[in-house]
Amino acid sequence: MSKRVILLPGDGIGPEIMAPALEVLRAVGADFEYEEHLFGGASIDAHGTAMTDETLAACRAADAVLLAAVGGPKWDTTDPSKPRPEQGLLGLRKGLGLFANLRPVKPLPALFDASPLRREVIEGTDLLVVRELTGGIYFGEKTRTADRASDACVYSRAEIDRIARVGFEAARGRKHLVTSVDKANVLETSRLWREVVRDLHGAEFSDLELENLLVDNAAMRLVAAPRDFDVIVTENMFGDILSDEAAMLTGSLGMLPSASLGDGSGPGVFEPVHGSAPDIAGRGIANPLAMFLSAALMLRHGFGMEEEALAVESAVDRVLADGLRTPDLGGDATTAQATRGVLTHL
Questions:
Q1: pLDDT value for 78
Q2: Cα–Cα distance between 158 and 305 in angstroms, integer?
Q3: Can you give the residue ranges of every domain in the chain?
Q4: Which of 60, 93, 204, 296 has the most beta carbons within 10 angstroms of its beta carbon?
Q5: So what's the pLDDT on residue 304?
Q6: CB neighbours of 148 closer than 8 A, spacing ≥ 6?
Q7: Span 116-250: which CATH code?
Q8: Do the two domains 1-98+265-346 and 116-250 of this chain adopt the same fold?
Q9: CA 209 – CA 31 distance, rounded (Å)
Q10: Positions marked active-site
Q11: How would you label 274-291 residue by residue, b for 16+ Cβ within 10 Å and e otherwise?
């Protein structure tokens, strides 16, 4: 029986980069059954909610979910009673139990000069940020009065253990170094975090190297010596901030893929890190490469198709080495030209 993938093109440039991604998947022989659903702002317009129950049920029943981008000024609001496209993302992560977000950051030699950091600083950088996705301050109890507001940051031992496990297991297939990032000099949740990570390391992963870094130190080291990192594992808010900082090492947010995974019993969600770029939507100039790399992560983590994943990644590397640049990378190549280039290499 063929594998089923739910497609969520979303808003802005989303549909423009989803279609080429399917061409790339077909070119590497990924013979899946696809089903498309409205999501984000497009779903708000049609159904009054960023994600319908029917869409969530379809995602739960699928083998993987491929998501393009959501959001746009049309749906921006501070009114808590109005739906926002981003609610679809939070609802999807929660509904599918996706507690681990994986963001690989590996600046491509062809783009070294696009990075705000000097070539000699970023050369050799190949790191993976593993961010806890469903706990911490983003999901804690919130209060608000006219003069006071609070957000609770809560973590349980089990939540920390399972995300740390993802980080350690990833490092076994890489350079065998895990950097656990916390704020244990100030925060009680971070002290528990450090304790649980240390215990798990000693009990099951002592073949790996573990270092504990305070988040401010980690932020500085990411800029000063990014090649020193292998796997960074951290809580929700720190991971949100550090993964965006790490993303800029590559010179363009438009180049980065991500994977959100659960315990393996349900599908993962694979999506580019960039937003819906409503300012360039409909102009045919969106960079589809992060979408292609997200499809590669789906092949690798969703279906165990390592050879096909590598083929896509290498085709993206080669098209950039050939000199192709979309506008976000300082060139004038169109979405179609970028797609054709990758397909030619495949």
A1: 75
A2: 30
A3: 1-98+265-346, 116-250
A4: 296
A5: 92
A6: none
A7: 3.40.718.10
A8: yes
A9: 39
A10: 138, 183, 216, 240, 244
A11: bbbbbebbeeebbbbbbb
With vertex at residue 249, the alpha carbon angle to CA 243 and CA 253, rounded to the nearest 5 degrees, is: 65
Whole-number Å distance between alpha carbons of 289 and 295 = 10
With H, G, I as helix, E, B as strand and everything else as coil, classify residue 191: helix
Residues in contact with 253: Cβ distance below 8 Å, sequence separation at least 6, in sequence order? 244, 247, 273, 274
H helices present in the chain, as ranges = 14-27, 41-47, 53-61, 85-96, 119-122, 157-172, 188-204, 215-224, 236-247, 289-297, 303, 306-321, 335-345
| Residue 199 half-sphere exposure toward CB, CA atoms < 13 A | 11
Q: Fill in the amino acid letter for 54.
A: E
Contact 208, 177 (CB under 8 A): yes
Strand partners, 270: 66, 259
Contact 258, 244 (CB under 8 A): no
Grouped pLDDT means (10 residues each) for the chain, 346 residues = 93 97 97 96 96 97 97 86 89 94 90 85 94 93 94 98 97 96 98 98 98 98 96 97 89 84 92 93 96 97 95 96 91 96 97
Q: Distance between CA atoms of 217 and 236, rounded to whole angstroms? A: 17
Amino acid making up residue 305: M
Q: Return d(Cα 249, Cα 122) in angstroms, integer.
A: 7
Q: Are 239 and 129 in contact (CB under 8 A)?
A: yes
> What stretch of H or E contains 132?
strand 127-132
Tokens encoding 342? 């990758």
Residue 60: which of 35, 96, 6 has the closest Cα? 96
1-98+265-346 falls under which CATH superfamily? Isopropylmalate Dehydrogenase (3.40.718.10)
Residue corresponding to tokens 């921006």: 76
Q: At what angle do helices 53-61 and 85-96 cross, to 10 degrees?
A: 40
How far is residue 8's CA from residue 36's CA, in Å, rounded to a whole number? 6
